């Protein structure tokens, strides 16, 4: 399926001019796809270090491609991608052959017996992944369509300074938290309510810290930072919201049943679809486009957080009812 989908997407990329040829697009998509599949496979087996090694394999390959295109004389993009794939493949194979974790894993969706049910679960995960990809990268596409090259340059530079540092921390925490949650749901759920205020307070403290780090980093890298304070605040706030989103994302990703997965996928997709409308409306009233797009993206992530949090609350309530089938009636009822 990955080979077929990669071929189709590679053909579309070549047709619309995103890649030099079908071969280059196909190889690029396969490199990313197989490294991501290896990442999820190893992370699900409680091997976060191995998972990140697999995830980084295509980045190493991409670095080699860039070096070949810059340094190499007459090296075509197709040849460079072939060499990159040749580097990524043995890296993935080596990581997958490393020793496995000895912990007994908790199995989810083991009641999915028929092919139809399996594809139904997979389609829900697919929709969630599509909405996540659009949430992560869609704002740049929106700004490219409605803004200028200068707007895109300012937004991307600002993201590097004020959004990406928190996102890097987000990815690391997510890779560790999800497998642990699957193994120890009872312990984590029991203490989740106790620490929720601490987490929220920590994120409010982290928000100005990310702004300060961004301006300091920009001064070191670029000499001066052209990002307006309002844009820096919005991007750093988005980074904090994405950090908070790790918890509901993990609950939905590794614990949700088929019905909850469908609800989450539909809710997430609805959230990301409102992002272009918000950006266009804010731009229409005179707001600078990079800030308008950033606010639209912040709204999208905040809505995703609320959708995920509602599902987490439902699961926690269901777990309490299961553990205490005859609760004592409240005197206020």
* Beta-strand residue fraction: under 5%
What average pLDDT do the residues reach? Answer: 77
Number of helices: 12
Query: Spans of 5+ residues with little confidence (pLDDT < 50)?
Result: 327-333
Q: Span from first to last CA?
A: 55 Å
- Assembly type: single chain
Order of helical and strand elements:
HHHHHHHHHHHH
From the spread of the alpha carbons, the general shape counts as: globular
Layout of helices and strands, plus pairs?
Elements: H1 2-15, H2 22-44, H3 48-71, H4 77-96, H5 115-146, H6 149-162, H7 164-183, H8 185-222, H9 229-244, H10 246-255, H11 258-284, H12 289-323
Helix pairs in contact: 1-2, 2-3, 2-4, 3-4, 5-11, 5-12, 6-8, 6-9, 6-12, 7-8, 7-9, 7-10, 8-9, 9-12, 10-12, 11-12
Describe the structure in your own words.
The protein has 333 residues and is mainly α. It contains 12 helices and no strands. The longest helix has 38 residues, at 185-222.
């Amino acid at each position: 399926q990955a080979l077929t989908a990669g071929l189709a997407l590679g053909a579309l990329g070549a047709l619309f001019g995103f890649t030099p040829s079908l071969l280059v697009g196909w190889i690029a998509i396969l490199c990313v796809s197989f490294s991501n599949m290896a990442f999820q496979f190893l992370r699900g087996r409680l091997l976060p270090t191995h998972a990140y090694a697999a995830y980084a394999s295509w980045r190493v390959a991409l670095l080699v491609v860039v070096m070949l295109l810059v340094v190499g004389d007459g090296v075509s993009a197709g040849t460079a991608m072939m060499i990159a794939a040749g580097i990524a493949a043995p890296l993935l194979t080596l990581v997958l052959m490393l020793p496995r974790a000895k912990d007994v894993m908790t199995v989810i969706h083991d009641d999915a017996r028929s092919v139809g049910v399996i594809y139904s679960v997979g389609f829900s995960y697919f929709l969630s992944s599509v909405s996540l990809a659009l949430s992560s990268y869609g704002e740049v596409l929106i700004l490219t369509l409605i803004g200028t090259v200068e707007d895109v340059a300012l937004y991307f530079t600002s993201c590097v300074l004020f959004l990406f540092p928190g996102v890097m921390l987000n990815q690391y925490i997510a890779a560790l938290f999800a497998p642990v949650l699957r193994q120890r749901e009872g312990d984590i759920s029991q203490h989740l309510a106790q620490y929720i205020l601490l987490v929220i307070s920590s994120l409010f403290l982290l928000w100005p810290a990310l702004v300060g780090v961004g301006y300091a980093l920009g001064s070191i890298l670029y000499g001066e930072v052209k990002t307006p304070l309002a844009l820096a605040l919005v991007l750093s706030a988005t980074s904090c919201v994405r950090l908070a989103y790790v918890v509901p994302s993990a609950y939905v990703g590794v614990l949700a049943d088929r019905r909850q997965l469908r609800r989450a996928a539909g809710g997430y997709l609805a959230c990301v679809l409102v992002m272009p409308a918000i950006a266009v409306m804010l731009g229409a009233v005179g707001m600078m486009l990079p800030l308008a797009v950033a606010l639209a993206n912040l709204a999208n992530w905040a809505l995703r957080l609320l959708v995920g949090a509602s599902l987490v609350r439902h699961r926690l309530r269901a777990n309490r009812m299961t553990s205490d089938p005859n609760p004592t009636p409240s005197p206020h009822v």
